[in-house]
Amino acid sequence: MPVKASDIQKLLPENGKKNCKECGLATCFAFAMKLANAGIALEKCSYLSLDSKAQIEDMLQPPIRQVKIGQGPRQVVIGAEEVMYRHQKTFLQPPGLALQIADGESEEIWGNKLAKLAWQYDRLDKISRFDLVALHCTSGDSSRYHKLVERTLAETDAGLILMADEPGCLLAAYEASKNRNPLVCVTAENYTQVVPNLDKSAAVCARAKSLETLADLSGKLKEMGLENLVLEPGSRTLPDLVRDQTIIRRASLLHKFRTLGYPTLFYGPAVTSDIDTQLLLASAGIARYAGIIVLDDVSPAGFETLLTVRQDIYTDPRVAPTVESKVYSFNEADESAAVLVTTNFALTYYAVAGETENSKLPVYLLCQDTGGLCVLAAWSTGKFVPETIAEMVKKQSLADKVTHKQLILPGYVARLKGDLEDELPGWEILVGPREATDLPKYLHELKKRRNSVA
Ligand code: SF4
């Protein structure tokens, strides 16, 4: 919730009425307004008492701290969320997805999992990958864990999560990977030995077995000077996961409970070793506030499912997803290709594009800019009508691309056929199926009809 300027003003000199103008603003209230919008530094007012300054700094802190892990283009930014429910505004920072590698696993498995960190999924004009790799010391052998850390640093640019109980082993891994800005996991048992040896700017994950012990550990880490914290509440079932994540979000956002005001981590391998169940839990974690999700392993289908769920939940609900308005070619479209027309609403495009590819027949797909509205919504608001379709057909010179001059309308707007024929003299307007799933059959029947006429 945004800070009110009037609340800040009360803490300014002389109850916010001094108005000396030395900060460069006409009044203390103007200064408070700028502070609330992060437009001026608190230090510009030199009359603040230490107590007032501390109170204002506390008020200006975001309820959930933003934390960065990793370096360069693969850096993960989590936290700084502002709402409980997506429909209130939008969720801001997609959770970082992490693949776990245990040093107790064979080196062949290390290699397989490191290769998965390079997998890519291209959807809605965005390429997604695993963001992080969680390196877990399960062997109890420091030299083997160090070998895994070194190999991971050499083979991927993903951010690192370091998980080892033994402080010496953990600190050696931290020193080796410090330039990569790793997330260092500590517990109530080892933090007193680990934290004094970390940089104050280090990203640290507090791992506990319950919310009560987590709040205690988080408070102690803050007292030791750490700011970039991530919280792992030790959820061990699906209901635990939903409850713990919800309590942390509510406590930080609605009650400004500072010790829980950090992004969270959900550790799937602690719940089950079954990777399909981990996938289901991860999906719940994406919907329910997890900042980082760690998985043991994933199949290619599971990988794409997870990234689709993440992208859908973290799409701004106020902005319709769109694709570029242009002519798309499928299956080596040539002058005999069928010509389909639809809108540039991304979900419509991907449904039509997928079935068009499945048909294995050459197709041009004309996506008209409707501001991301689907076919029926665009038609009902006058954005997908004969005039606009005809204009795009002419602008894209479709008559020069094909020899047959047949244009296929979506079945839902069959009523546009007559008027569109008036707008596009010489074109035959066909009515396609209502559902994208019926497109392959329709296209094959159309081809047969054309062949029989020829
Ligand atoms: S310098 Fe401080 S006291 Fe003076 S006007 Fe600005 S906010 Fe008010």
Characterise this structure.
The protein is of the alpha/beta class and 454 residues long. It has three domains: 5-60, 3-methyladenine DNA Glycosylase II, Chain A, domain 3, CATH 1.10.15.40; 67-313, TIM Barrel (Alpha-Beta Barrel), CATH 3.20.20.20; 327-453, 3-Layer(aba) Sandwich (Rossmann fold), CATH 3.40.50.11600. Helices cover 40% and strands 16% of the residues. The protein is built from 18 helices and 17 strands. It has an eight-stranded parallel beta sheet, covered by helices on one side. It has a three-stranded mixed beta sheet with strand order 13-15-14, with helices on both faces. The protein is flat, with a radius of gyration of 28 Å. The mean pLDDT is 94. It binds iron/sulfur cluster (SF4).
Tell me the major beta sheet: 8 strands, parallel
Distance between the termini: 68 Å
Summed up, the domain count is 3
From the 3D structure, determine the CATH topology of the largest domain: TIM Barrel
Q: What percent of the residues sit in helical stretches (DSSP H or I)?
A: 25-40%
CATH class placement of the largest domain? Alpha Beta
Overall mean pLDDT: 94
Full CATH superfamily name of the largest domain: Dihydropteroate synthase-like
Provide the gyration radius in Å: 28 Å
What is the percentage of strand-forming residues?
15-25%
* CATH architecture term of the largest domain: Alpha-Beta Barrel
- SS class: alpha/beta
**Which geometry do the CA atoms define?**
flat
Give the ligands present: iron/sulfur cluster
Please tally the helical runs, counting DSSP H or I stretches of 4 or more residues: 18
Spans of 5+ residues with little confidence (pLDDT < 50)? none
Strands, total number? 17
